[in-house]
Specification:
The chain has about 325 residues and is an alpha/beta fold. The protein is built from 9 helices and 14 strands. Helix 6 runs parallel beside helix 7 and helix 7 packs across helix 8.
Length: about 325
């Protein structure tokens, strides 16, 4: 059966004059149709020429309020790009993949390269019936000082681990997209904000939304609930951890990074009760050590270290799991 060729992805572009030509050339070289390009002039255009996604060069944004206006009023999904155009082919392919994802498009097979394909991330028992082992879920809890610590952790983490990372970072809704963009650029781990109904899989970092509570099950399906968080902390790390522990049981872990307060201590107790592991960032490597220290006072913490040491320990944990399963 011959497949019908997929129509070209239609992208609107907002960038400075000096960057616009480079972005357009890159997108068109990947078979993308740039249907609108211009500077960040307001109000936003009335006609979008059928664009499916908007790419905004953050270096062109004069101030934060104008970026927020784009996010609030653009009629299509928005991808915020910070730091200009990357020089590597890997960066180019990741930009293409993000645009395809936001436009709800499948990435054409011609653009799938071997160095971006991940190995089979579901470990199967040798000689068994072929049933897939449930994935490991590791919740990263963080507050003040957390983004920098998590970035260091991801930079030290190889991309082929059989785990999914769920980031519960205290942050306002207006800054979520920027955090995702910054973390996504810092390592080989793709980072995205959880959608309304998301199937999560290994090899990915998902940011928990600050505006809505989440629900999940052990199959990897995560849903945004209709109501918000019951706590003043957004997101509520305790609730995230309790939900994760209930869904994943002993295949759930928690790593508590830099932060103020003690959010996450009750949730870590739930993870520990289910047989999961609790790790913390070392106090001397934190911007503010209250959160990991509160966890150490209330729970049995198996390991503490710098973000790089935590990454190395997680690699070791995954190797132990693979040996025990295989």
């Amino acid at each position: 059966m011959v497949e019908t060729p997929q129509a070209a992805l239609r992208v609107a572009l907002l960038a400075r004059d000096c960057q616009r030509g480079q972005f357009r050339a890159l997108l068109e070289s990947e078979g993308i149709e740039v249907v609108l390009d211009g500077g960040l002039n307001f109000p936003l255009p009335q006609s979008w020429n059928g664009a499916e996604v908007l790419l905004v060069d953050m270096d062109s944004a004069p101030n934060r309020h104008e970026v927020e206006s784009v996010l609030q009023h653009a009629p299509v999904p928005v991808l915020l790009n910070a730091g200009g155009i990357g020089e590597s082919s890997i960066w180019h392919r990741r930009l293409l993949g993000k645009l395809q994802t936001l436009a709800n498009r499948a990435i054409p097979s011609a653009h799938i390269h071997k160095d971006r394909q991940r190995p089979d991330l579901h470990l199967v028992q040798e000689g068994g019936a072929g049933d897939e082992e449930p994935m490991w879920l590791v919740v990263l809890g963080a507050s003040i000082g957390g983004p920098k610590a998590v970035a260091r952790f991801l930079q030290a983490l190889p991309p082929d681990l059989p785990v999914v990372l769920l980031l519960a970072q205290h942050i306002s809704e207006s800054f979520q997209d920027l955090l995702v963009e910054q973390l996504d650029r810092c390592s080989q781990w793709p980072v995205a904000l959880l959608g309304e109904n998301q199937v999560i899989d290994s090899g990915q970092v998902w940011l928990v939304p600050s505006e809505q509570r989440i629900e999940m099950d052990g199959s990897g399906e995560v849903r945004r609930a209709a109501d918000g968080w019951l706590s003043t902390q957004k997101p509520d790390i305790d609730n995230v951890l309790q939900t994760a522990a209930s869904a994943f049981g002993s295949r759930c872990g928690a790593i508590m990074f830099s932060g103020l307060g003690k959010d996450g201590t009750r949730g870590c107790e739930s993870v520990s009760e289910q047989g999961g592991f609790i790790w913390t960032q070392s106090a001397e490597s934190c911007v503010i050590s209250n959160m990991p220290e509160a966890t150490r006072r209330c729970c049995r913490v198996e390991f503490s270290g710098t973000p790089e040491e935590l990454a190395k320990a997680l690699v070791g944990q995954c190797r132990i799991e693979q040996v025990s399963i295989n």
